Amino acid sequence: MTAPTASTAPVAALALGDDALVLSHRLGEWAGHAPVLEEEVALANIALDLLGQARLLLSMAGDEDELAYLREERAFRNVQLVEQPNGDFAHTIARQLYFSTYQRLLYGQLAAGDTEFAGLAAKAVKEVAYHQDHAEQWTLRLGDGTADSHERMQRACTALWRFTGEMFQPVEGLDGVDWEGLRAVWRKSVEGVLGRATLTVPEGPQSGAWTAGAGRQGLHTEPFGRMLAEMQHLHRSHPGASW
Amino acid sequence: MVTATTPLEAELLRIAGSVPDPELPVLTLEELGVVRAVHLRGTDAVEVELTPTYTGCPAIEAMSLDIERALRERGLREVTVRTVLTPAWSTDDITDEGRRKLQAFGIAPPRAGRASGPVPVALGPTRTRIARAGETEQAAATSSVHCPHCGSADTELLSRFSSTVCKALRRCLSCREPFDHFKEL
């Protein structure tokens, strides 16, 4: 087993940890607002899984609370997809479909590798399989549902498409990952689900001109600052407070 | 997977394993399969290896405190509970006795033998039943989730996530009762 060097491990731990933390917070925003009680519970459970991953990953990079609550926007390394606002339920499901498919494939590769992330990935990949299943079932229901749900699901899938390319940018410290292979399998999987859901695969590019995505470099979209302000407010107002 | 080397360590492992699960108190931690090992460090210090069911399971802190209390009552001065992730916990680690207790408590136990590798994602039916055409009774019985109340295999999924992250919500189509199902992981 190759020991990861101290300089690269935190970069990857921050990238993966921030993805999980930020999406966990976004999903938690549904509490009290989900369309039905079962969905409220489901989204909170997915958020809890992600929070568990985030705690372990951020602890590999430093003090988990300091990293979550005291960093400025530019210091976060999550992809821009996960920070996108919840929108309507279709937007949340499209974000879940894109991200959980990616996370499951990435963790699958990490679980088979020999980095320090292998153990966590082997554990989390089993949980993420349920996230992906949840997102796929809802994509089918909404896409192949009423005219209104179909239109909203299509709009959401199209709106978030330009954020998907960023997920396949190589992350320093995750050298064993086959990023292009990951992208190809991701695309096949997502296209399959969209097809079964009678939805059209968005035509725009995933990366390059007219796309978004520099979260891994610390550049974030406007809604992220507002999300962080809410997430960090309590901790910053009452330093060191505990239950 | 569970290791104890000396008679004293075996006894301490039994004590740690007899602690009830904080969220499912019908089960002990041993029956849940989460206490991995106990190592003596000197004469009155001990280290316990505990593995979480789910990465974000909030019960892990309560479990650690309960184990610590139980071992201190046995006379240990210093108790350290260490969380281990590898190998990842699986519902196959729940003992047969644990499965029986879950069933008696009204929670359908996880189906066995599905834990190797990632959980397959199937865009298949959410309903299980007694036997489909061309399917043996045995194959149907292992793939079905049975109602813990009336035993029927004709049940349907209501939600993939229930009162805790480890459970799914189902409904029995024979007796119409909703019930929790401990998901395979």
From TrEMBL, chain A:
Residues annotated as transmembrane: none
Gene Ontology biological process terms from the UniProt entry: phenylacetate catabolic process
Query: Its GO CC terms?
Result: cytosol
NCBIfam families registered for this protein in UniProt:
PA_CoA_Oxy3
Protein name listed in UniProt? Phenylacetic acid degradation protein
Query: In the UniProt record, what gene is named as encoding this protein?
Result: paaC
Automatic annotation (TrEMBL), chain B:
Q: Which residues form the PaaD zinc beta ribbon domain?
A: 134-183
Q: Which residues form the MIP18 family-like domain?
A: 17-76
Domain of life (superkingdom): Bacteria
Gene3D superfamilies from the UniProt entry: Fe-S cluster assembly (FSCA)
Q: What is this protein called?
A: Phenylacetate-CoA oxygenase subunit PaaJ
Q: Which organism is it from?
A: Streptomyces poonensis
Q: What is the lineage of its organism?
A: Bacteria, Bacillati, Actinomycetota, Actinomycetes, Kitasatosporales
Q: Which gene encodes it?
A: paaD
